[in-house]
Amino acid sequence: MLRSYLNNSKIHPAPLAVFRILFGSMMLIALIRFWVNGWIHTLYIEPEFHFKYYGFSWVTDFGNYTYLLYLICIIAALGIILGYRYRLSIFLFFLLFTYTELIDKTTYLNHYYFTSCIAFLLCFLPAAHYFSLDALKKKKTIEAIPSWMIDGIKLFLCIVYFYAGIAKINSDWLIEAQPLSIWLTSKYDIPLIGELLEYKWIHYTASWSGMLYDVFIPFFLLYPKTRKIAFLFVFLFHIMTKIFFPSIGMFPFIMIFGATIFFDVKWHKNILGHLHDLGVKLTQKFDFLKSKLTSKKTIVLFEPKKHVLPIFITFFFIQLLLPFRYFAYPGELFWNEQGYRFSWRVMLIEKKGYTTFKIKDSVSQRTFYVDNTDFLTPFQERQMSFQPDFILEYAHYLADHFENQGHQNIQVFTDSFVALNGRPSQQFIDPNTDLSKEIESFKHKKWVLPLEDEIYGL
Length: 458
What we know:
Blueprint: H1 2-8, E1 10-11, H2 14-36, H3 39-45, H4 66-82, H5 86-103, H6 110-122, H7 133-138, E2 140-142, E3 145-146, H8 147-167, H9 171-174, H10 180-185, H11 200-222, H12 227-244, H13 251-258, H14 265-282, H15 287-294, E4 298-300, H16 308-321, H17 333-336, E5 351-361, E6 367-369, H18 378-384, H19 388-404, E7 410-420, E8 426-427
Parallel strand pairs: 2-4
Antiparallel strand pairs: 1-3, 5-6, 5-7, 7-8
Helix pairs in contact: 2-4, 2-13, 2-14, 4-5, 5-6, 8-11, 11-12, 12-13, 14-15
């Protein structure tokens, strides 16, 4: 049955073409927004030190040339929308977008990771073989592609939602309504509904609704009879998320437009029909363009390359298992964050930290404290203050910096206190551990003190 589905089940490529156009459009807007708001300079050029993902210390910033990377990404996004030199466009977009995100893990957000994953999948899909400038130029089009190519995108969206939902099945989210209680209470200035956000029952309603939405929305989107009402919930949920948390950026719109992939072929054909009519109207003064848009194209068979399906299977195998790697570590995940990133745990924790560093000469016993603002931007310092891998990397950076200045026998200790989801602040890092001697790895970080509480759930 599975073999028959993989080899014989076919579908019209219209949903993939619409998804390509919508994804490219969202990325174009997001990149321009990032540039206009000055975040390229703030996040990539201004800092003198960048926090690196483990194994990616070789990724360096390009200074002012980072603007060039974004410019190429913008051009690539246009190529994706138009389906022009698509293979080159999607590959450049995936490569450069992912590279810029690897420059500094301070900028990590789930939707950046989501974007890289979608771009990776699109690198192997025939998204420009239909309704694109590439197809127009070749005067060839396709009428059928393997169903698993579009179902693969649906599956990925389902994984993102479902994993985000089961991650919310924990005592902080459901029993304490945290961290939503903290966040919603601070939104009292929202017109009309601000006062309601002070009530505890609103916090519990939002917490339970958010969990139920994430867990069940994939199934309602997949089932044809509930698809329209499910999409309405997708729209309302993400619009409310954008209102309450405007700093979340383009993610709500990406998820709204991404969910259209679940609609049937007829819906997507109608969208492309409207776009085609618009294109004809826009080019009616240019006969050679209009003739190209209205000319008949040769329908050709599409056969995927043999390596594509194994790549998809490997990708989804990783996506299904990676979020559960935290089981390999003792202690509380929300506290030590070992296995937290890349697991679709969305908006589950509110952590505030205060971390200072003490440099000590192990021979003379002289000590002095570091002013973090001498080395980090405010955003970097805020993120560093409660994330163990950030603290360790920064400690090594400080040790190297002061050794280069002529200091000897350097040890690096920290006074670190963190509050998690409304709990009282407690000591986070063992103050007696010389962090300059600790090595970053996938091993358990024993120098992170245990949380003086327990969070039940997944």
